[in-house]
Amino acid sequence: MGTLGTYETVRLDHEDGITFVVMNRPEKRNAMSPQLHFDMHDALDDCIMDDATKVVVLTGAGNAFCAGQDIKEFFRASDKDPKARLRNRRASHAWRWEKLSKFPKPTIAMINGYCFGGAFTQVSACDLAIAADEAVFGLSEVNWGIIPGGIVSWNVANVLGFRDAMWFALTGETFTGKEAAAIKFVNRSVPLAELRDTTVKLAHSLQQKNPIAYRYTRDAIRSVRGMSVEQAADYLNAKSDALKTGDPEQGREKAMRQFLDEKSFKPGFGNFKR
Ligand code: COA
Questions:
Q1: Nearest protein CA to atom 30 of ligand 1, as residue
Q2: CB of 67 shorter than 6 A to ligand 1
Q3: What's the pTM value of the predicted model, to 2 decimals?
Q4: What angle do CA 207, 125, 151 make, to 5 degrees?
Q5: Which of 121, 182, 186, 227 could tie 131 with a disulfide, CB 3.0–4.6 Å?
Q6: Which sequence spans correspond to the domains of the chain?
Q7: Which atom of ligand 1 lies at the shortest distance from residue 136's CA?
Q8: Atom of ligand 1 at shortest range from CA of 28
Q9: CATH architecture, domain 10-207
Q10: 150 lines ligand 1 (CB under 6 A)
Q11: How far is the CA of 152 from the centre of ligand 1 (A)?
């Protein structure tokens, strides 16, 4: 049960298990105003609560994915109002990082166009990312005298190789979706005309996975990066044990039965029958 609400700056479009969470200020290239941060927080909660939502696809309305923080409404409007600045910053971090990077359902960033500055954080927070070949990315902060803050630098340093992170952050040079795929900022890129179909196909394939195994795997890959090998071994053993007892679908037993006894499934080539 659950319902998808309506919001001033975010649109929720549902289609066959997928909820498209659309940053919806196309006239401002979907730049993130404080209102967009507040709306996004609630819209993502709707997606968590909505049983029909199996996968979330984050994208932008019009010809932009997101042009970063709204320079007027997010920055200038709170220059003399530290309390508003604090509130905006907190909301901005909460949905883009705390909520999205640990989202209880699969998430895909579908980058349909311009993607600048602060928008790199929500791309990095999604489990997977597909861009249009034609999309334009840029760490433009250096061009207007600020740093890639709000954990953008941290994300870029984690996701990209060192030389690419330095190059794009220090030059502010733009790069296309194709180049974003080549440097692995996104998983892959396709022509814009194929972007939606490709993303839907991927989303449907993720829907077939055992949900708790998917989530634990995602959490494991994200978490082990900051651990020593000893910590990682301990964490992963504990997670494996938790999965064995905590999976309501009892996926492991089902899969073993189908592979070993019924000979009806080959784990190398696809999912067990849930
Ligand atoms: N903050 C506030 N407003 C923004 C914005 C941003 N990040 N990005 C775009 N807009 C606004 C423009 O000011 C313009 O508003 P107006 O119609 O009231 O004049 C409107 O969106 C359309 O932008 P425009 O520049 O005319 O569109 P474009 O298609 O020619 O160019 C961009 C698109 C994204 C390349 C360009 O707007 C841009 O460089 N934006 C800033 C990107 C950036 O540096 N983001 C990092 C912020 S952390």
A1: 29
A2: yes
A3: 0.97
A4: 175
A5: 186
A6: 10-207, 211-260
A7: 35
A8: 21
A9: Alpha-Beta Complex (3.90)
A10: no
A11: 19
- Tokens read off for 167: 């190059």
Residue 180 structure tokens: 């974003």
β-bridge pairing 128-132 and 188-190: parallel
Q: What is the pLDDT along the chain (274 residues), one digit of tens a residue?
A: 568 999 999 999 999 999 999 999 999 999 999 999 999 999 999 999 999 999 999 999 999 999 999 999 999 999 999 999 999 999 999 999 999 999 999 999 999 999 999 999 999 999 999 999 999 999 999 999 999 999 999 999 999 999 999 999 999 999 999 999 999 999 999 999 999 999 999 999 999 999 999 999 999 999 999 999 999 999 999 999 999 999 999 999 999 999 999 999 999 999 999 9
Sign for the CA dihedral angle at 242, 243, 248, 251 comes to: negative
The reply to whether ligand 1 has any atom less than 6 angstroms from the CB of 29 is yes
